[in-house]
Design a protein that fits this description.
Elements: H1 5-30, H2 36-42, H3 45-69, H4 75-104, H5 109-115, H6 118-140
Length: about 160
């Protein structure tokens, strides 16, 4: 079935916006640092670089969720699968990023960002982008969006195809 571009675009915008909102809510609930509005007013360039990396990573996750889950057969089914896939991708992104900070950057990163170390902000943002790329690629190899797709129709080198 041929997907209408506006249908896919609508899912892309909705998923991206939804994931950004979820990320901000999660940060305000679980993070000890300040809200995004305060961060951008205080002039800490390191935090801004970190935030840019987070937003770019969310773009990768939302694109992978829409690309791999929208099949156009049912709006409800597409919404369910895209939402589940996107939230799972966001959780994996945050987990991989936190693990990367602990393993690669020795957990000193939050203090350096708070101090205003721009190099630390770029490193943290880059780690988020890298985690987003890896997570999006991993999401692209999983075929769960519809019953018409069989696991044998998926491979790492080719996208999932309908049978």
């Amino acid at each position: 079935m041929e997907l209408r571009p506006l249908y896919v675009f609508g899912f892309g915008v909705a998923v991206t916006f939804g994931l950004l909102v979820l990320l901000r809510i999660g940060q305000s609930l679980f993070a000890s640092d300040k809200t995004a509005s305060v961060i951008f007013r205080e002039g800490n360039s390191a935090r801004r670089m970190f935030q840019v990396g987070q937003v770019l990573a969310v773009f990768f996750i939302s694109a992978a969720a829409v690309k791999n889950c929208v099949d156009g057969k049912s709006l409800g089914r597409d919404a369910l699968w895209v939402s589940a896939f996107a939230v799972f991708g966001l959780l994996m992104l945050v987990l991989f990023q936190r693990l990367g900070v602990v393993l690669l950057l020795r957990s000193k990163l939050p203090a350096e960002i708070a101090r205003g170390n721009v190099a630390a902000g770029v490193a943290a943002g880059g780690l988020y982008v890298a985690s987003g790329i890896v997570t999006a690629q991993a999401m692209g190899t999983i075929c769960v969006a519809s019953a018409s797709r069989s696991p044998s129709s998926c491979s790492r080198s080719s996208p999932c195809t309908s049978s």
